[in-house]
Amino acid sequence: MKLPFYFFFFLLALQFTACDHRSDAQKIVDASIEAHGGENFAGSQIEFDFRDKHYTIHKTPSAFEYIREFSDSTGTVKDVLNNAGFVRTVNGVKIDTLTEERIGAFSRSVNSVAYFAFLPYGLNDDAAVKTFLGETEIKGKKYNMVKVTFAQQGGGEHFEDEFLYWFGTEDSLMEYMAYSYHTDGGGLRMREVSGKSEVGGIIFQNYLNLKPADEKIPVEMMQELYLAGKLEVLSEINLENITVQPLPN
After folding, report:
1. Can you say how many angstroms the Cα of residue 122 is from the centroid of all Cα atoms in its chain?
2. Closest CA relative to residue 42, chosen from 161, 122, 149, 109
3. Signal peptide span per the entry (predicted)?
4. pLDDT tens, position by position, 31-60
5. CATH number for the domain harbouring residue 48
């Protein structure tokens, strides 16, 4: 008996499905990265202004370079953080007198802005450990919750931090996040998307930065406090003058 041609397409699709060994959390994150810009993240140089500082970002699965530029009383400052480490120049002259403490503080500051601006792309870093926590609902919209922690090996100074992300079940967009951090005195925050813009095929988001009265509670309690109106607006996270320049292949 000759089988219809579409039967072979069915078998092929079944084979691909059977070979997909990704966890539920990984599938959710992969879908969100695609929804926010996919390959455009790694194939572009991104620039924006944030709080009177100019950032230039390029990140691929194997390499990254984050540049922050601004002017202060010392002159024109340029910070460069990449796979080789951190370098600060002032008026074009490298500063060799920075202590390890200052290098760490500057590196964390640059990395933090770049990390949040590039979300959800960075969630596939090798050190990221992703766990699906189930489905939930916020303001009538359904979300998949994924918790992200970091392995100590390769997780950097932030390996003890914990992150929660809310991804729309239908559109895969990441519209809420919460995180606990231990550096610089530690704390607990939640971010709510306050605006979106699409530039160069990438969705960039602004946020309201929220905090609870008690910053020692588990990060998993943040949604409950948010829905109860018990989080204080601490600041606004707004990216301005965004440009996306495709890199040559």
Report:
1. 5
2. 122
3. 1-18
4. 999 999 999 999 899 999 999 999 999 988
5. 2.50.20
The helix, strand and coil proportions of the chain, stated in percent and rounded to the nearest 5, come to: 25, 45, 30
pLDDT band at residue 200, thresholds of 50, 70 and 90?
very high
Rounded-to-integer distance, Cα 225 and Cα 111, Å: 28
Q: Cα-flanking dihedrals φ and ψ of residue 15, to 5°?
A: -65, -45
Is residue 2 a part of any domain in this protein?
A: no
For strands 44-50 and 240-246, give the pairing: antiparallel
Count of domains observed in the chain: 1
Edge-to-edge strands, sheet with 240-246: 93-94, 85-90, 75-82, 64-72, 53-59, 44-50, 240-246
- The pTM for the full model equals 0.85
Tell me which residue range forms the domain holding 225.
Answer: 24-246
Q: Look at residue 14 and tell me if it is in a domain.
A: no
At 93, the amino acid letter reads: V
